[in-house]
Amino acid sequence: MRDLPPLSALRAFEAAARHLSFKKAADELAVTPTAISHQVRQLEAWLGLRLFERHVRRVVLTQEGRELFPSMREGFDTLSRGIEALRTPAPQEVLTLSSTVAFTSKWLVPRVPAFRAACPGLDLRLHASDEAVDLRAGSVDLAIRYGRGVPEGLRSELLFQDRFAPVCSPRLGVRGVGDLGRHPLIHFEWRRVDEATPTWSRWFASAGRRYQAPGGELRFSDESHAIQAAIAGQGIAMVSLVLVAEELVSGALVKPFGPELEGFAYRLVHLDTPRHAERLGPIREWLLAEAKKLGPRK
């Protein structure tokens, strides 16, 4: 067991020795100079030593006081640092996740609260861009890529395979394919179009019907805008079923008929190094678990 004098006496001595003034020590500790003097005398009595020479307007440390002061100062500095470390939370690691604008808006942002609950030791920064970022540059930790392939040197894991189908607001009263001509067709304009791109033209071909839009057409360069137009009842949209999964569950949108078209794959990608695998473990597991809720990845 430590045999120590009262902590208040040690504090009074350390402050008085640092300032070489009972008054300044009293101001720092929010007590009176008389209280400082009393505490110092209590410490001197406990030690059986004089620590200060007292003069009319100043105090001077004795030899014994000069020997005691460094250890007192170091001890209180160490104690202060330890308490400050407890009061100030350590900065959390920030991970940057990049994905397309529509996927970030429609799928990632609504799940941020779930991420914070599942990964309390991490902060997430979302980077929304339809341009594929260079993960080797270091500004982005991992990405959700949408397309056919992934560059070499990156680790890739399938989240889910996208599918497309006509969707619309239930307010339109669409029941079957025959209702197509009564409403505008809503298009998302793809940057590159080929035979695998899930467009209205491909859908009509898959349905064995001639392409026509007697109700007119609405075209959007942003997929999330096309989805919002469909929710608002402005027409029938050919959009990602992944991005409108919540709206289909809530009833804000309906999928009145098929067929469905296979879209591209959503893949989680990051640098293929042990360091990245360890750092990204928690967010990777969370993303895979969230993707699994949508059903088989195919």
TrEMBL record:
<feature type="domain" description="HTH lysR-type">
    <location>
        <begin position="5"/>
        <end position="62"/>
    </location>
</feature>
<keyword id="KW-0238">DNA-binding</keyword>
<dbReference type="InterPro" id="IPR036388">
    <property type="entry name" value="WH-like_DNA-bd_sf"/>
</dbReference>
<dbReference type="InterPro" id="IPR058163">
    <property type="entry name" value="LysR-type_TF_proteobact-type"/>
</dbReference>
<dbReference type="Pfam" id="PF03466">
    <property type="entry name" value="LysR_substrate"/>
</dbReference>
<dbReference type="InterPro" id="IPR005119">
    <property type="entry name" value="LysR_subst-bd"/>
</dbReference>
<protein>
    <submittedName>
        <fullName>LysR family transcriptional regulator</fullName>
    </submittedName>
</protein>
<keyword id="KW-0804">Transcription</keyword>
<comment type="similarity">
    <text>Belongs to the LysR transcriptional regulatory family.</text>
</comment>
<dbReference type="InterPro" id="IPR000847">
    <property type="entry name" value="LysR_HTH_N"/>
</dbReference>
<dbReference type="InterPro" id="IPR036390">
    <property type="entry name" value="WH_DNA-bd_sf"/>
</dbReference>
<keyword id="KW-0805">Transcription regulation</keyword>
<dbReference type="Pfam" id="PF00126">
    <property type="entry name" value="HTH_1"/>
</dbReference>
